Every structure is written in C-alpha cells, then in structure tokens.
Amino acid sequence: MSAGVRIISREHNPLSQAGVTRDEAGVLRYDDLPASLVAMLRARADATPDVEAVVELGGERVSYRELWDRSARVAGGLRAAGVGRGDRVAIRYAAGVDWVLAFFGTIMAGGIAVAPNIRSAPPEIAFVLDDAGVSVDLDSGTPLPDGEPHVEEDLGLRDPAAMFYTSGTTGRPKGVPTSHEAFLTNAENMVRGLGIDRHAGAELRTLVSVPLFHVTGCNSQLIVALYVGGTAVIMPTLDQAALIGAITAERISFIVTVPAVYALLLRRPELAAADVSGVRLVGYGGAAIAPSLVTALQQAFPRARVFNGYGMTETASLMTTLPHEDAVAHADSVGYAVPSVDLGIIAAGEDPDVGELVSRGANVMTGYWNRPEATAATLVDGWLRTGDVVRVDGAGRIHIVDRTKDIIIRGGENVSSLEVEGVLAAAPTVLEAAVIAVPDDVMGEKVGAVIFGGGEEVDVDAVIAHCRANLADFKVPQYVTVVDEPLPRNAGGKLLKARLRETARWGPPLR
Q1: Phi, then psi, of 417 in degrees rounded to 5
Q2: Which residues pair with 444 in a beta bridge?
Q3: Which residues contact 452 (CB under 8 A, 6 or more apart)?
Q4: Rounded to whole angstroms, how far apart are CA atoms 372 and 357?
C-alpha cells in the first residue's frame, strides 16, 4: 500500500514539529514526553499539590495531591482484588470524580482501564465486558476499591493504559488499546494545535460536557488539563443551563462540544447575560458547521480563539486542527495535520488530491483488541485507513468529503452527504440535518434529508431554495422529512446514520 500513498506536504502547515523525531520505522514521536501517565500525574502532584485537578459539578473538588493519594488507594484495592499487570478493569461510573479515580487507580495498579459506553443497551455492554475479558467491573452500584496505596513504578510509554471501544456504527464495536505514549502525544498535539500555554497551570479550566468514555472528553480535555496542570470541570450529564452557569461560576477558559449544541446555546438568553470573558478556547467537531455559526461563536465569546478538530478512537483523538485564523474562511475544513502525524491520501480516481485519508504516528493504534482480521484490513504497511474520503487544498488543509459508506451514488454521480449537510446547516430554520440515500429504481439512489428545527417550524420550501442556490441540481435533496426530536448521535456527537436509514419515513419526492 505504501506505493499508493501520497503523503500530504507540511510546507504550509503552521504547527511546529520542534522536538519531533522519526523512529527506525519512520513513525513521528515526541522526544521529551513524561515517562507515563503516572509520571505525569506524580510531577503535577509534587509541583502543585493544592491546585484543583478535578471538579465534579454538584459534587467533589479534588486537588492534585488528593487525586494522587486517592488513586493510589484505588490501585491498592484493585491489587488486593487480584488485578495484575495488563488485567482489564471496566469503569462504568457516570462522568465525575469517581470515574477519574478509577481510571488513574487502574493504571497505577498496572491494569488497563476499559471505558464502555454506559448509554449502551445491556446486551451491548455485556459484549464489551466479555470481549475485553474484564476481571473487575466497576459499575454504578460498586464502591471505589480501597486499599494500601500502590503505584506500579515501571510503566513505560509503549505500555497500554486504557481501552476505548469504537462506536459500532458499522457492526460490533472494536476495542482500541491506547498506550501511555498515545495519550501523552495527543495532549502535546492539543497544546501545539490549539496554542495552549503549557505554563498556564491553574488558569486552564476546561468544561467537560461530553462523556469520559469518549476520547474527546477523556483524552482531549481531562488528560490535557492534567498535562498542563489545569483543572477539568466535569458535567455528569449535559445540561445547557448548567453549562452556561458553569462558564461563569467555574471560570471556564476552554469548552468543546458539537455544532448543534452551540446552536442551541446561542438561542438561550442566559448566554448573552453570562460573563464569558474568561473563555479563551472554543472547540467543535464531529459534524458540519456553517460559517455563520462560527462567526456567531466568535461574537458570543469575543476573547476566545475558535478551532475545529478531527480525529478517531483509533488515533487517541486528534489528527488535525483548524486554527482560529482559518475558522470562517475555511469552515468546511478540519485543518492541518497535528505535529506527530503523517497524513496521506490513496487517490480514488484521477485527482490525486481526493481519496481515502490514511494516518501514521505515535498516537495511532497498533491494532484492535483480539480482531486480527479487522486490524489487517485497517492497518496496512503501517498506515491507518480512516475510511474517510477527503480533499486536500493547496495549503495542506484537509476537507472531509464523506465516509466511504455514506457517499450517495445518484445516477452515476457521486454526492457527498457531508457537503449537502454543510449547506443545510446554513439554511433558514434548520438546527440539525442528516443526509442519507433513498433507494430509487431508476437512479439507484436519491438524496434524502432528515431535518430538525430545534423547536422552530421548518420552512421546507426556503430550505430547498437555499440548497438550489448553493448546490448543483443533482445534489439538492429530493426527499425531506422533518422530525420533532434531535437527531440520534453517538457519544462523540457523530450522527447515527444507520439508525436514520432504518427509521426515516419519506413522503413523495419534491420533484
């Protein structure tokens, strides 16, 4: 496969690669990361023991020293329960202090923290527990283990620290073992990609409103906060009013959520009245975003830099970031490769700048858990096949065209569902939109749109007129259904299109 990969040039990439070296296999790695997540936390506990490390809204506030001491006691309790090096411990607590203590306690015990999606149905959770071979299951009814403090001292960067599961949108979810190096590499990529002041310390306070069993919440918020000595303020469940209140009350400087949530927040009068002067970073991802929404975010958070990000469970979160300077003019882009990652394209046709995106780097997985066939299909010659079709512009920015499985083939013409969703996101009265194929006896497939107005009446005629003004005729939706509930998404905010294909009810075509 290597011969078919065109590596994307970093000539115009603004992100520094200082201190990044290629190993003997050609993989980019940072030179000076902490020795492990345990070493990272120990250094913070020693340097700033009294700084808040974790705050659970409506619950406890834990300093770095307390986080270290209590995690070590959890580790001791797990060791007493028989957990040894490499054993898997499932963490099924709600997002909050107990989840974080269980996570670091498991790692300090030498175990691997397994993070199931606690919103899954019981059979789905049972599959994950069985697939991972979990020896201890910490569910909501189980108290935190407690024992004599224990810290596994010789953990290294290549050792596995945790295992997240893919969303399972195309079949059974797959376990992704994530090394200490992958976690720390992603944290350093976040620092460089977002321009975070690595000496900010307690001034960096990130509001974690996405689940900790997802790589955005854990890897790119919780771990990043601890990496720079800041504070992770965790919401056990997403509540828009509480989120706005927390921005002021907790002096939040860094927020991340999906575009649809931002669109709802901007409609709330409480946001306009809130003191958001401390917010310095506003991140989004997981769905198309309209330039008008980016502009509205810049106006709502006038002292903040906004950014887009793109990644996968298999890459421990980020592969790319789009900086503030490009946020409006290139709102359809997910940005440039982060410093530790090589990105490449396998051309899908004659255009060398369009094709499947592949990735290689220290934060990229080495394989799925006990899935040799899936690993062999996804990792080829050291490159991770993302399954995303992309376009690369002249500056090296990545534009997601679509998931390979979501491209609609209408009478021989390829239609990017993401492109159409991007146009719909900017249409009047539309809060959320998903574009899926509608089977057709003549054309093979036609374009269907599922629209949610967020409580406002959707003007379908105006929406279609907007599409006709911004899309080629064959890309304009011919079927539209308006729903009364938000569109189904996974924990990372990605649309569950398989569910929509099963549930969408179409009326007669519009034309």
Answers
A1: -65, -35
A2: 440
A3: 430, 431, 432, 433, 482, 483, 484, 485, 486, 487
A4: 22
At residue 81, what is the residue type?
A
Tokens of 398: 């990545």
Model confidence, pTM: 0.86
**What's the pLDDT score for residue 289?**
83
CA distance 197 to 5: 35
Other CB atoms within a 10 A radius of the CB of residue 451 amount to 22
Q: How many CB atoms lie within 10 A of CB 308?
A: 24
Q: What is the DSSP string of 140-206?
A: TTSPPP--S----TT--TTSEEEEEE---TTSS--EEEEEHHHHHHHHHHHHHHHT--TT-GGG-EE
Structure tokens at 324: 């503030």
Largest CA distance in the chain: 71
Residue type, 137: D
CA distance readout (Å), 127 to 81, 122, 214, 373: 23, 9, 18, 19
Low-confidence ranges of the chain (pLDDT < 50): 1
Measured distance CA(112)–CA(219) in Å, rounded: 15
Which SS3 state, helix, strand or coil, does residue 437 take? strand
Are 336 and 13 in contact by the 8 Å Cβ rule? The answer is: yes
Domains of the chain (ranges, CATH numbers): 33-349 (3.40.50.12780), 407-503 (3.30.300.30)
Predicted local distance difference test score (pLDDT) of residue 119: 84
pLDDT at site 316: 97
pLDDT in tens, 184-239: 999 999 999 999 999 888 899 999 999 999 999 999 999 999 999 999 999 999 99
As beta bridge partners, residue 409 has 414
Return d(Cα 240, Cα 260) in angstroms, integer: 12
Look-up: residue for tokens 């093979």? 444
| Separation in Å, CA 354 to CA 344, 408, 414 | 10, 16, 13
Give percent helix, percent strand, percent coil of the chain, each to the nearest 5: 30, 25, 40
At residue 442, the pLDDT reads 67
Distance CA 480, CA 510 (A): 8
Please state, in angstroms and rounded to a whole number, the distance separating the CA atoms of residues 496 and 308: 21
Q: What is the CA radius of gyration of the chain?
A: 23
Helix intervals (H) in 442-496: 460-470
Name the burial class of residue 367, with classes exposed (0-12), middle (13-18) and buried (19+) by CB atoms within 10 angstroms of its CB: middle
